[in-house]
Design a protein that fits this description.
The chain is of the alpha/beta class and 341 residues long. Helix content is 22%, strand content 27%. Helix 8 packs across helix 9. InterPro entries: QueA (IPR003699), QueA_dom1 (IPR042118), QueA_dom2 (IPR042119), QueA_sf (IPR036100).
């Protein structure tokens, strides 16, 4: 499909720079069949059915934004995928000053050696020492806010909490599964009381999620791989919910993409562990999920293509036009939507 079909104009003032407070006070655009309704995230217990299951991503964002020096050259690095115990793939700023074998000093006693450069321009970085890399990053790294926020204000202490979900448990993401940022313990308790369950899986979100689609046609776009895991007990739980007539509703596109990666053509979700580079565009048949809670996405992005595959392109174009006109807040710290085909 032509990528231009997924373009739209977004006024810059619609981009949220801070999350709603409290988190579940964020607005929620409900698309249910042909119905369009304005609500808030706190209304979810009354918008879903007893027996439904919300599936959250329990990945934890690491301080993956690094600033260092190679000799007299400033080098910026954004880690985006682990390749080994001490090796990470990273997008590099000032990459023209970096070569295979160069040593980068990130301060606080943290150094790394540049390895091979991939086709996408990213470098492998091998971190020196015996301490776990996560501990090194806590010393020298900072929270990797999305570029559409970082370009408007600096990262600060609030982001360390604001950019983690209440489910964050497994370190490894360099971007938050932002739909889950809206959830609070009080909202989960209300959902439990309404008979709406929840489960978790793990997908370590990479910085590739923010990369624009540069191809003119979706068939020419290559997705970055991300590592994920659904264990056997969780897969069995999801299948049992659907067999009993409940709906599996992914909270975030990361949860959805991992479930769909694990689902077979027989619509059975199986245990999964490894990389996924699934790319969902209109025409895709969903096999493992029945709905999605997600924020509002970038124009021409793979994520807007995904929601258009779920609900239909014209439906999502109209929904986004409504959200823009009605003052919804967009992107990672913005408002949410409940999409039920």
């Amino acid at each position: 499909m032509n990528v231009d079909l997924f373009d739209f104009d977004l006024p810059p003032e619609r981009i949220a720079l801070r999350p709603a407070s409290p988190r579940d006070s964020a607005r929620l655009l409900v698309l249910r069949g042909d119905e369009t309704r304005d609500a808030t995230v706190a209304d979810l217990p009354g918008l879903l059915r007893a027996g439904d299951l919300l599936v959250f991503n329990d990945t934890r964002v690491i301080p993956a934004q690094l600033e260092g020096r190679r000799g007299d050259a400033k080098i910026g690095a954004t880690l985006h995928k682990r390749e080994g115990p001490r090796r990470w793939r990273a997008f590099i700023r000032n990459a023209k000053r970096l070569r295979d074998g160069d040593r980068i000093d990130f301060g606080q006693g943290v150094t790394a050696t540049a390895g091979d450069r991939a086709e996408d321009g990213s470098f492998a970085l091998d971190f020196a020492g015996d301490e776990p890399v996560e501990l090194l990053l806590e010393r020298c790294g900072r929270m990797p806010l999305p570029p559409y926020i970082a370009s408007k204000r600096p990262t600060d202490a609030r982001d360390a909490d604001d950019y983690q979900t209440m489910f964050a448990d497994e370190p490894g993401a360099v971007a938050a599964p932002t739909a889950a940022l809206h959830f609070t313990p009080e909202l989960i308790a209300a959902l439990d009381a309404a008979g709406i369950g929840h489960a978790t899986l793990t997908l370590h979100v990479g910085a590739g999620t923010f990369l624009p689609v540069k191809a003119e046609d979706t068939d020419a776009h290559r997705m970055h791989a991300e590592w994920g895991r659904i264990d056997a007990a969780t897969a069995d739980h999801l299948n049992a919910v659907r067999a009993a007539g409940g709906r599996v509703i992914a909270v975030g596109t990361t949860s959805l993409r991992l479930i769909e990666s694990a689902a077979g053509e027989d619509d059975v979700i199986r245990p999964f562990e490894g990389d996924t580079s699934i790319f969902i565009t209109p025409g895709y048949r969903f096999k493992g999920v029945d709905g999605l809670i997600t924020n509002f996405h970038l124009p021409r992005s793979t994520l807007f293509m995904l929601v258009s595959a779920l609900m239909g392109l014209e439906r999502m174009q109209a929904a986004y036009a409504h959200a823009i006109a009605d003052g919804y807040r967009f992107y990672s710290y913005g408002d949410g939507s409940l999409l039920l085909p």
